[in-house]
Amino acid sequence: MSETLVRMPKLADTLVEGTLGQWLKRVGDEVRQGEPLASIETDKVTTELTSPAAGRLLEVLVADGQTVPIETPIARIGEAAPAEGPSRPADGPSRPAPATAPRKATPVAARLLAEHGLSPEDVRTSSGRVTKEDVLSFVARNSLPAPAATSSAGGLVPLTTMRRAIAEHMLKARQTIPHGQSVMDADLTQVVAWREARKDAFRDEHGANLTLTVLFVYALARRLASSVGGPVDVGVAVALDAGLIVPVVRRADSLGLGETARGIAELAARARANKLTPGETRGGHMTLTNVGSFGNLTASPIVPLGQIGILGPGLVERRPLPAADGGMRVGWRCLLSLMFDRRAFDDYAADRFLRGVIDDLTALPAASSA
Questions:
Q1: Domain boundary among 78, 102, 126
Q2: Mean per-residue pLDDT for 238-242?
C-alpha cells in the first residue's frame, strides 16, 4: 500500500518552523489532491495546507497548536478504500460515504465547527464553502450552547499563535523604538465631496472601491517617497477575527489611485481568506492603520519593528468648522495621528511630514481635475 508523508511546509526562506493551527480533516476521512487539509500558522500569517495526494488520512503526527520545524512529517495519507469498504477505520464510527464531494470550510469556520461538534455538511451555505458567518447563523438558529471555556477556574486562556506573535512584536517595538507623536486636524470637506461624486464611476472603471483608506495610503506613499526617497512600500492594517495583520503594498508611491485601490482590495481579501504568504507582511517603510473605520477619533498605535512610523487617521465626521468670513460652516473633519521613531524624525520633521500628508490629501480633488 503506497503512502504519502505530509510535511510542515516552508512558506518563506527565512522561516525554520511552523505551527499546526487546526486539522480540517479527521483520521479516516478521504481527501482529494489539492483539498485543504490543515491550517498552518507562521508568525502572523495563517494559510491553508492542501493535500499533496488523493487518498485517506491515515494518521495525524502533529496535534493542533503544536509548533515543529519545517519538513517535519505531520500526517500520513494512504490509498483510499474501495467503494464497498467502510468509510472509516475499524476503530472509529462508520458512516456512509458522501454522495458528493465533501464540503470545504474556511479555517475559522472549521474551528467553530469543531468547537460545537459539527461538520461542514450540517451547516447550510449559499456558496460552495462554509464560512464563519454560516456557522454562527446555524448556531444562533438552533440555540446551541456555547463551547466550554478553556479554563473553568477562570484562569488565563493560552494565546493563539497569531496573538502571541502580535504581543511579542508590539512589546519589542515598544521597548526598542523611542516613540513620538504628532496629531493634526484636517479639513476633508472638499475631499469627501470629490470622492462621493467619483466613487461609482471609479468602481466601474477600476473594479475597486475608492475608499478613504485608499486616499490615505495614496497621500502617505507620495509624502514618504519625497521624504526618504522612493520607491517605498506601505503596510495597510487589515482587521481579522484573531487580530490585525499588515500586508504590504509594494512601490506604493508609483501606483495611481486605481492601482492603489485594487492592490489594497486584493491584499485585504487574501488576508481574510488566509492566502497571504509571510513575505507579503514584511519590509514596509511605514504603515497606515485606519482607526477611524472603527469609530475612533484618534489613536496612538505602536510603530512596527523595522519601520519609521505609523499613520492612524481617525473618524471622518461631519462637524462645525470655521468659515472664511469668520462665521461657521458644516464640513468634514479628521484627526490624523502620526506615531514616529524619534531616530528617524525629530518633532519638527514629524510635524512637517504630517502636514505634507494632509496637503497631498486635500490637493487630490484639484489634482484629479487638472
A1: 102
A2: 82
Q: Determine the residue type at 107.
A: P
Domain identity same for 175 and 71: no
Assess whether pLDDT exceeds 90 at residue 111. no
Compare 367 and 296 and report the one with higher pLDDT: 296
**CATH number, position 84:** 2.40.50.100
Look at residue 111 and tell me if it is in a domain.
no
Predicted confidence at residue 127, as pLDDT, reads: 61
- Grid cell of 89 as nine digits: 477505520
pLDDT one-digit tens code per residue, 124-169: 776 667 877 777 777 776 655 555 444 444 555 666 667 777 788 8
DSSP 143: T
Cβ-defined contacts of 57-63 (< 8 Å, 24+): 57/25, 57/26, 57/27, 57/28, 57/29, 57/30, 57/31, 58/3, 58/27, 59/27, 60/23, 60/27, 62/8, 62/20, 63/20
The percent helix, strand, coil of the chain (3-state, each to 5) is 35, 25, 40
CA 168 to chain centre: 18
* Alpha-helix runs per DSSP H in the chain: 107-115, 132-141, 161-176, 189-206, 212-228, 257-272, 347-362, 364-369
Q: Nearest-CA neighbor of 313 among 212, 241, 178?
A: 212
Provide CB contacts within 8 A for 166, sequence distance 6+: 44, 243, 244
Distance CA 179, CA 215 (A): 25
Per-residue cell: 4:
504519502
Cα 90 to the chain's mean position, in Å? Answer: 41
Q: What is the number of structural domains in the chain? A: 2
Q: How many other CB atoms sit within 10 Å of the CB of residue 17?
A: 12
Do 89 and 169 fall within a single domain? no
Over the range 39-55, which residues count as b (16 or more CB within 10 Å of their CB) and which as e? bbbbbbbbbbbbbbbeb
Question: Which range, of 16-30, 41-55, 128-142, 251-265, averages the lowest pLDDT?
Answer: 128-142
Specify the pLDDT at position 83: 53
| Dihedral sign for Cα atoms in the order 206, 212, 214, 215 | positive
